[in-house]
Amino acid sequence: MSAPGTAVSPSPDTLVLLDIDAGIATLTLNRPQARNALSREMMLTLQARLDAVAADPEVKVVVLAAAGPVFCAGHDLKELRAARGHDHHLATFRQCARLMTTIVKLRQPVIAKVHAMATAAGCQLVASCDLAVAAETASFATPGVNIGLFCSTPGVAVSRAVPAKLAMEMLLTGDAIDAATAAAAGLVNRVVPAAELDAAVAGLAARIAARSPRVLTLGKETFYRQREMDLEDAYAYTAEVMALNMGLHDAGEGIDAFLGKRPPSWQGR
What we know:
Lyase 2-enoyl-coa Hydratase, Chain  A, domain 2; disordered N terminus; transit peptide; hydro-lyase activity; Enoyl-CoA hydratase domain-containing protein 3, mitochondrial; Enoyl-CoA_hydra_C
């Protein structure tokens, strides 16, 4: 949940910072005075940044980071209370759902770089990313039940990332889990000392960015689609995708490079 508001929020141009280097786009939530709470303006800005990197052919990997002492405290509760009314609230939660779906459907892999607490929609944000690396100082919670606002929409992403029993415990109690528990449950891929977080994320992002961007996009899309199918349909679908993949230039180049014991030269096609 969000913290009480303090200073005036940054302008829309600085709410989410964007830095692109060596094919890696880093998006940094930059509303630290409000614990990076997801106001409607914050969500719109992050959505615009994601749409921009999706259209940038030079970007191969996206890293989602945050400034300040909290990764993301969820929805902006002051904003929700100030703008009372079903229609406004529904629009806000639908906007959030669109944002999370965009991350899953983004053509590039998205890595969450979690240095601190991620709660409610902030935990949802982490769970929606393809990969997540957390510092030992990070923690995760869906504490809406504590204030009478059950974390139903965060539960969509969290329940798809961790076992059902743990998801229900988090949702029903609002209790936080530490980074080690999150890693054991599959919410994050690995946990590192806080001082090593930057290097760990940079190394992971660079390894992924070194692969064929066309194959990364195909692979991410295929992974999420086959997860929703039964076993036979999943195998039928992925057989078609593998045959399509074999026809790509980069597959031929990759196999020839492997057989020839040389580095591949990806063309992204």
